Every structure is written in C-alpha cells, then in structure tokens.
Amino acid sequence: MSYMTPPTPKKSSGGKTLIIVLVAILVGLVLIGVIATMSIKALSASSPTSPSTNQGSHSQERPNTTDTNRDTSASEDTPPVSIGKEGEITDWKVNVATYTREASAAMMKDNSFNDPAPAGMDHTLIDLTLTYTGSNQEGEDFLFELDFYLVDESGKKYSWADADGVAPDDLFASFDTSLKPGKSVTGQLLFDVPENSSYTFRMESSDTGQKVEIPLN
User: Fold this and answer.
1) Region (Disordered): which ranges (predicted)?
2) Distance between CA atoms of residues 93 and 133, nearest Å
3) What is the band of 213 on the pLDDT scale with cuts at 50, 70, 90?
4) For residue 35, is pLDDT > 60?
5) Considering only 34-38, 92-96, 102-106, 171-175, which range has the smallest mean pLDDT?
6) What 3 state SS string does 78-130 have?
C-alpha cells in the first residue's frame, strides 16, 4: 500500500515583508524631512519680497548700498554680544549657544542624504535659541521676519538659505515657524562658508534692517 508524501509547507514570508515595510517607512520619513527643509529654503530663495542682490535671502526689499553680498555698513543698532549671551533687536532675542566649524561628518552620520562640504568650504552649524518678544498675540513668523547670515572680515555675507544640506536639528524642520509672545524655539542653522576664515553671526530684521551680531571666536 503506497502513501503520498505530504507537500512541504511553504515558509512564511511575513517576517521579510514586515522588515521591507519598516525600511520603506524609515526611508520615507527621512525623505520627508529632507524635502521639507529644502522646500523652506526654496520658498525663502524665491520669495517675491527678496531683494535680487542677496540670492537665497528671504528679506523684504529695502534700500541697498551695494549690488553684491558685501556689506560695508557697521552694526550700530545694537552692540555685539558674545556666544552664550542674549542679543536683541525689536521684537526678537537670539542666543547662540555654540557653533561647529567643520560639521560634515556629524551631518552625514545624522542624515545619509547629506554630502561633504564643497572643496575649500566648511559646513558650519550654529546652535541658537530665538525668542519672540513682540505683542502680536497671533504670533510672528521668524522665517519671513528675520534674516540670518555669517559675515566674514571683509563684510561678505553668507546666507543659511544658500547652504547645501540639512542640519541635524534644523531650525526650520517644521513648517510652523510662527512664535507667539514670550515663546522660544531652539535649533540649528547650517551655513556653507570658505574655510580658514573668521566669521560673525548676524540676525537682521527683514522689515527694518536692524541687526545684532555675535562674533564666533
């Protein structure tokens, strides 16, 4: 009497499928973060209120004394402050806690989509806290109210909006960039600047041009 050999049960592919789904979700989240930051930079760079003389800036148009990114004016509106101290312009305060000059390794470790800085340049990260001190109960949007630069010793300005990459704790990671009175936000700004130079961090009002500077010693 012969017996039929029962078919060998197929191995379940459920575990592999779950792993593939989880990996896809993780990659999707990373892509969303990159796209969000790049979209904000593109919005800043293409804002109709941006002056054509400062490519990548989101500042509103105001009188300019030069047709380049070189700024020859002195910052007389508010005295410079040191790292770790609070600087202030109308309606806003800023505190630069620390900075990192060559941050490529940390950026690529945090986000595989980041690339090293171009030859002769540094990825420079600024860790800062912004506080809105104005009285508008609906809040003010720091993306459009403020400009951020690193300024070299000759006065040339480098905007965060021109940097190529995403900071690990990007200040603009969220599309909600509005602060209500007394509220603060902490994060990082990325700048691409020539290496082996000294820089000053500048926060500037897009409306009035009032500014405060923090030398990066």
Assistant:
1) 44-87
2) 7
3) very high
4) no
5) 34-38
6) CCCCCCCCEEEECCEEEEEEEEECCCHHHHHHHCCCCCCCCCCEEEEEEEEEE
Residue 74, Cα to own-chain centre: how many angstroms? Answer: 25
Structure tokens at 22: 């989880």
Let me know if residue 28 belongs to a domain: no
The residues facing 169 across adjacent strands are: none
pLDDT tens, 117-129? 999 999 999 999 9
Q: What is the residue range of 96's domain?
A: 87-216
Strands of the sheet containing 184-194, edge to edge, are 86-89, 92-100, 121-132, 184-194
Helix, coil or strand: residue 184: strand
CATH number (domain holding residue 204): 2.60.40.1240
Query: 204 by DSSP, 3-state: which?
Result: strand
Tokens of 44: 């800043």
Name the residue among 30, 48, 142, 127 with its Cα closest to residue 92.
142
Is pTM beyond 0.85? Reply is no
